[in-house]
Amino acid sequence: MTLMSPAATGHAPATAPAGGSRSVVLRALLRNKLAVLALAVLALLLIAALFAPLVAPYDPNAQNLLLRLRPPAWQDGGSGAHLLGTDQLGRDMLSRVIYGARVSLLVGAGAALLAGVIGTVVGLASGYFGGWADRVLMRLADVQLAFPSLLLALAIVGFLGSGLWYVILVLGFTGWVSYARVVRSEVMSLRTRDFITEARAIGVTDVTIMRRHLLPNVMAPLATIGTLHVAAAIVAEASLSYLGLGVPKETVTWGAMLSDGQLYLGTSWWVAVFPGIALMLTSLAINITGDALRDVADPKAYRR
């Protein structure tokens, strides 16, 4: 059974119109010049992260103490061979910033995906079945919300140990609540619609109803939350790495670079400033994109 048309059900669709909805979303997104700029920044970061071995001029961990703390190319004493200068061990800052993008984007996307899957499953079950299932699942969400997410992540990572996949798992398992609450709210408003009632009447299973009729109708808010959660996960990973509890030291991360560079802010500012700028621009671009997606997902946006 497919989703019935608004004329047949007497209700407006829960999401953007199916016919040509992608082109409508794209046009609405392209009208937002700030969002286009943010997407361009993210595209550059993604390209740099994917092709880091080809883009980065040096091995990010290659040390040369004779070149330690060289300033950026545009300052006195700088060199075009190291555009952003070198750190306290003579490592090229540009190469390290590029390689740091790989870890940040992988952690952000992986944590958001894991949290989205968990939260969507919980939200669908809670909103569709209601009753004791809803009460139990939402109490579990309340228990997790009682703990600050970063503090909980610190405790879990401290117990499990450092590692890239550990960080992704921890940030994913500590971030599912927002997905679950939004999906639950959407599903509770949809489960009384005529097309859901008719699907039940002809014997469609609950799993099929949730998969074919409810899940497509909650994808728009999920995309918005997921985008914003990517930025939050990137900042959380940088915080863990800054404290020495993230990925191993030999893996280049912006948080670890910030931690190493804080001792040199007074004399060699670039060691901490450039990874900080990269972290800020990435988080800002992702948040702007998420805000734009939220505006496009608003039904009023399609009538502008």
UniProtKB/TrEMBL annotation:
Keywords, ordered alphabetically: Cell membrane, Membrane, Transmembrane, Transmembrane helix, Transport
GO cellular component: plasma membrane
Pfam families referenced in this protein's UniProt entry, alphabetically: BPD_transp_1, OppC_N
Annotated membrane topology: Multi-pass membrane protein
Ranges annotated as spanning the membrane: 34-56, 103-129, 218-243, 263-286
Keyword hit for Transmembrane: yes
SUPFAM superfamilies, alphabetized: MetI-like
Subcellular location, record wording: Cell membrane
Top-level taxon in the UniProt lineage: Bacteria
Keyword flag Cell membrane: yes
Domain ABC transmembrane type-1: 101-290
GO biological process, one term: transmembrane transport
Similarity remark: Belongs to the binding-protein-dependent transport system permease family.
PANTHER family in UniProt: D,D-DIPEPTIDE TRANSPORT SYSTEM PERMEASE PROTEIN DDPC-RELATED, OLIGOPEPTIDE TRANSPORT SYSTEM PERMEASE PROTEIN APPC
Protein name stated in the entry: Peptide/nickel transport system permease protein
Organism: Streptomyces melanosporofaciens
